[in-house]
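The passage that follows is intended for readers who have already worked through the single-chain material. We present the inputs for a multi-component assembly, then the predicted structure in tokenized form, and finally a short commentary. You are encouraged to pause after the input and sketch how you expect the pieces to fit together before reading on.
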Amino acid sequence: MTLSFVEAMRGWLQGAGSELPVSFELRAIHRSGRRFDVQGVLAAPPLAQETMTRGTLDLGPGELTYHLTFDARDGRRLTLDAVKHPSLRAPHRSMTRMHTEIRDAEGAVLASGEMRFATRDLPRFLSSWVPQLFGSKAHRELDTRRRQIERRLLSDGAL
Amino acid sequence: MRPAPDMQALRYGGRPGHVESYFVRANDPEAPRAIWLKATIYAPERGPAEVESWLVWFDGDKPRPAAGRESTVATLPIAEQTAGGTRLTAARLTFVLSREGAALGIVHTSSGEARVDLRWTTPESPVAAPLSLLPRALLGEGPFPRSKLVTPFPSVRLSGFIDVAGQRVDVRQWPGMQGHNWGREHAFEYAWGQCLFPASGAEPEAMVEGFSARVRVLDKLTPRVSCLVVRRGPRSFRFDRLIDLWRQCASIDGDRWHLRMAGRDGDARLDMDATGRPIACLGYRNPDAHVSYCMNSKLARVRLQVQPARGAAFECTSEHGGALEILRRTPDPRFPEVV
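Having made your guess, compare it with the prediction:
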């Protein structure tokens, strides 16, 4: 049975001399070993308005690594890399905050900073852990957001 | 959509120690030009009450706006209810305050007489719904704070014409707003801003309005407290926990106002900057005869960033659509001429 869950994180990154907000909401589907495939929605204005994203979540020894790709507003393919370092000394802080970087295709860092998991999202996060076939309210709402983005991208001719 | 009757109702009851204003502004969506009109009832603690009309015409190509004020002794009733709405006349300027309102009349300005004939309509939009920045009815109607503000129509469309500075300006569906404020005095210091962001492609219409102010309580000045409301399409984000000073940070630096707010609805950053833009320095009399100085710009650059508690982060920008007013108790040496 394949497990899946939905996770949302948000934060403010420093880039191009100013702060920019970044947020994502992802569905993670367990694939093998310590790897999850993830897909969902991401926004990092002005680099990217709300758009679709996909990538991986790796549960490595001592760290959780997110690697996402998404399309910027100007058509560039960008990546978001983030890492958590779970620690028994600071379990809450280490599991709810992660250093994040957005890079372009050449690897140049466009923005970096910290993203956070909001504690108020914990019930939604926990209730989203279900077998992939079933889904939860969080899964359904994420699907709705993805469909809205798909419709917008279609109407813009971007899909 | 119709504002609560008390939002437009005249608070002045004929007693001294009161100042109250209705104002309208509109921005040319195609160019850095804007009009601001205001009618004020000024009832000093001593002496007869007056009504004042104000007009400022902002043209991004000119360093100084065309600005003027006229005042006359007030005669009661100042406002009357008509079929078209509340009708209020200050000097030679008349406002019809309604969902389909008007601003008509003449004001003498630094560039000669200016004539306005403007009518507005209110779009059917959640963004255009009446707005109170202050969070509770008690704050809106009670003794604290000593100055109040509401926005009966945060988003209107104005059409008509303005004869100003030797030219006729045709106004066609300019976005704007109509506000109302009153109190026993002007706040000691404030920055107030409002901006409309028109719908564009998939981006819905949005609006931001907020303030940072220091007010007097029991003869002591409060720290700077701020409120911010953002509307975007059907969603509204309120940052209005006045006493939660840990979650708000405001700075007023010259002609720039920067605000960071956090709350149940998420996080927001607002940056409004009128540096290098036309600014009018307006002298606002307090009922105790002290004068406050309002640096009034309607062409400020605006950047709004919102990180909602639920949903995608978004950003709205406007190159010259921001209404920014910064009021202080001291004159600004850059403006030897105060309107």
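Commentary: The CA atoms of residues 41 and 52 of chain A lie 4 Å apart. The first helix of chain A runs from residue 91 to 96. How closely did your sketch match?
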